[in-house]
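Narrative of activities, Objective 1.

The group set out to show that a structural description can be obtained from nothing but a protein's sequence at a throughput compatible with the screening campaign. Below is one input-output pair from the validation batch, recorded exactly as produced.
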Amino acid sequence: MVASAVAACRGDVRDHLLAGDRLLGADRPQEAIAEYQVALRQRGEQADVLLRLAHGYAHLDRLDEASDYYSRLLAIDSAYADQAVADFLGLAERALQQRDRARMSRALQQVEAIQPGNVPEDLALPFARYHYELREHAEALPFYLSVLAATPDSVEPAVLYELAGVYYELGECEQALVHYRAFIRTRPGREQRNDARWHAGQCAYELAQADRLAGRPSEALEKLDLVIALGSPQALLDDAWFDRGEILFALGEFDEAVNSFQNVLDLNPTRTGRLVRAAEDRIRSIRYRPEEEEEGEAGEVGG
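Output recorded for this entry:
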C-alpha cells in the first residue's frame, strides 16, 4: 500500500489526495483515481500525485495507464523504482493466475526495464516460455538460464529441451548439444527424443566440421562418433562415416579408416549413395597403396 503521508499543501488539493487515499484503502480504486485526477489537474505532475495514480491503475490491473504514470513519475524521481516494480510484479502474478500470459509478459517487461534481473523464480519460467513460443529466443534465454541456475539438480526435462532449442535457434550449437544430450538422458517420449537426437546429431556434425577446419582431428572424431551413436540425422550418417575415414586416413590409422569407409558402403547396399564411389576409391587406395609406404609403416612399428 502506498504510504498515505501527503506533502503539505493547501485547500482542495490536499483534500483530493486524502480523499483518494481513503477510497483506495476502502477498495474503491475507481473513485480514488477520480480524486487523484482532480489533484493532478490542480497541482500538475508532482511525484506524490503521479505515484497515487500509477498505484491506483495498477490496483485495477490497467497496465497501460500504470506504465504511463510510472514512466512519468520515474522521470521525476527514480527513488520510486521499488514501488513500481512491486506493482508490476503484482500485475504479472494476477495476469498469470488469469492465464493472460501476454499481459503477464508486458508487466514483466516493465520490471526488466526498471530493474533488470528482478523477475522472481516463479515467473521466470512462464516468461521464458512466452518468448519461446513467440520464437523470441534471445529474449527467452536469460530467463531459462535463471531457472536452470535456481534448480540445477531438479530442473524439469522440458526446460532442458526448450533451452537446447533456444541455443540451437541462436546458432549456439555447442551449448545446444550439451542440453540436448542432458534431455535425452532423461528418457523422454519418442517424439521429443527423436527430435532431440536429430538436433543433437546436426550440432555434433557441424561442430566436427569446425574442429576439422581448426586442425583438431581428435575433437572432430569424438563428435563424428556421437553423430554415429545417435544415428541421426540419417541423412548425415554417410557423411559422418566418410569424414571419420578421411581423418583416420590422414592420421595413418588405415585399418580404422577402411572400416569407416566400409560403413559408408554398408549403409548403401544398392551402391547408389553419393559417397559410395569415393568410399570405394579410398578403400582401394589404402589396400593397394605403394609397397614402400607399407614398408615405412612396418619400419616405424619395428622401430
